[in-house]
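Intended use. Records like the one below are meant for learning the mapping from a protein sequence to its folded structure. Do not use them to infer anything beyond what is encoded.
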Amino acid sequence: MALTIDAGSELRLLILPALFDEANRMRRMTVDTMRALGSVGIDTFLPDLPGCNESLAPLKTQTLSSWQEAAGRAAQTFGVTHALTIRGGALVGPAEIPCIRYAPVTGAKMLRAMLRARSIQAREAGREESLAGLAETGRKEGLDLSGWTLGAEMFRQMEDAVPVPAACTTIEQTELGSSGLWLRAEPGEDADQVRTFARLLAAAIKA
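Structure written out for the chain above:
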């Protein structure tokens, strides 16, 4: 399954979304940006990664490698000219096409944030779960983090994952003028950020 805005334009953008708990917080901004890009003649394609959203594949069996393979197939299916990766999406973006990275992050940094959140939740429930102990379990057995079931292979890959090497332009959060929506406790929206983001993306794609 994929959310698409396809008017048959020459400029066609594959979007690899933010991953795991950040995905929910960034979804509204992502879709609003797609609409804004559509209004300036850029088609957009936001696929469900295997194990996410409407996908019937089990999440626990997925790895960063399987997601990158899926991203490559999506790029071919939609005949895209460019790719946009959002946050952790940079870890699975296709390397063969020009790309724009929005606030890319390493897998280790994402894992630390999710492990810390689980440890805090456990403490509030009267349990002690150390970060080191959780990480060891994740490497051997996999782990539930922020409502996402990561298999052991996914966990191990995340520990060492860096953005996929590719010819990329990077858009940092500071260019959008306020804090990232992934930092909010709940999903939100910011029309000013969307307008700025869409303008920067269009300029990079049409350059």
